[in-house]
Amino acid sequence: MGDNSPDGLDQEAAASPKPYSFKSTVTYASAEHAEMVKNALSVDPELRPAVVSRHLTVEGCKLVTSISATDLRTLRAAVGPYCDLLKLASRVLEAFGDPPASDNHLPAS
To answer: Hey, is 2 helix, strand or coil?
Structure first.
């Protein structure tokens, strides 16, 4: 086993190969909005970092998400809830802030 880091995560396990991946880009009206959604989605760390990695970055007005997993089933289990939370955070931003850029297509509920 690898050494435990100060945050309690096994760095060797977190760095294990994760050949299956999902990437999404969502454009918001401003970089501030993209950062707000990123911060809302970054609150909880992955429960199983040995099998799933999630990275969120803001590039201008875009929120870029990459999720990688050791197998397809785990990837699907990680992506589904993430997309639900992304949709919720985007809808809250729409309700209380500026609308998202027109090139996004969030499915209707």
So the answer is: coil
Range of the domain at 37: 11-96
Count of all residues that appear for the chain in the document: 109
The answer to whether position 4 is within a domain reads no
Residue 87 clears pLDDT 60, i.e. is over it:
yes
Total of domains in the chain: 1
Contact 27, 62 (CB under 8 A): yes
Give the up-direction half-sphere exposure of residue 10: CA atoms within 13 A in the CB hemisphere: 11
Q: Who wins on pLDDT, 102 or 1?
A: 102
User: Residue 29 CA to chain centroid, in angstroms?
Assistant: 19
- 16 within a domain of the structure (yes/no): yes
At 109, list the tokens: 């509920």
Phi, psi of 42 (to 5 degrees): -95, 0
Q: Which residues of 90-103 are buried (b: 16+ CB within 10 A; e: fewer)?
A: beebeeeeeebeee
